[in-house]
Design brief:
Shape: elongated
Helix content: 10-25%
Radius of gyration: 25 Å
Strand content: 25-35%
Order of helices and strands: HEEHEEEEEHEE
Strand order of the largest sheet: 1-2-6-3-7
Structural class: alpha+beta
Distance between the termini: 65 Å
Length: about 190
């Protein structure tokens, strides 16, 4: 009885350890855990996408897509953008696990084998894509597909999850979307400084 309780505790901690490391996709450039990507198609036309992991809600993926569109609009020197069509796709994946074990019985000293059950876990991740056109001036009030980039950015900024800052060798912080500066190399190329 005591051994079973210990095994339950072990498996609970192992499951927590595996799932505890994974977090919602932060707002970041596209990487292994998802993020945004964009491509300029014309002077004021862009293709924008945001991919989330299985812990990122559909609404969050769509909000991050619009936030990136607002950033591109403002970086292009414009004030509003028009969404030319948006698509959000769900990618569902099934993961299966199967267990098998061998051992000796308590009352009989000959080998025994045991077969476990198959466990299927289903996860869903969302990817949102759109094309936008950016414009200067006031947003047209009669176009429901037009967004004021300044207003959208200020409204969504408080709910963004940013990548965790990582400490560099010099003690400064850097995030996933900010490259870590390398120390200057001396004449020998060792990176040592005087």
């Amino acid at each position: 009885m005591h051994r079973i309780s210990g095994l339950k505790t072990f498996f609970c901690l192992a499951l927590f350890g595996l799932t505890g490391c994974m977090t919602v996709t932060p707002y970041q450039p596209l990487g292994a855990e998802g993020g945004y990507s964009d491509q300029r198609l014309e002077a004021n036309r862009f293709r924008v996408s945001f991919a989330g992991n299985s812990l990122t809600a559909r609404q969050t993926v769509q909000d991050y897509l619009l936030y990136r569109a607002a950033e591109l609009t403002l970086a292009n020197g414009h004030d509003y953008f028009v969404v030319l069509g948006q698509h959000t796709a769900a990618k569902t994946t099934e993961h299966q696990s199967f267990s098998f074990g061998t051992g000796f019985g308590r009352w009989h000293w000959y080998p025994r084998a045991g077969v476990g059950v198959t466990t299927t876990t289903t996860t869903t991740a969302f990817v949102a894509e759109t094309q936008i056109r950016t414009f200067a001036g006031a947003k047209p009030q009669d176009n429901p597909d037009a967004f004021d980039a300044h207003q959208l950015r200020s409204n969504l900024e408080p709910v963004l999850v940013r990548p965790e800052a990582k400490k560099t060798a010099a003690g400064a912080e850097a995030t996933a979307d900010q490259p870590v500066a390398n120390p200057p190399l001396d004449q020998a190329g060792s990176g040592a400084q005087d």
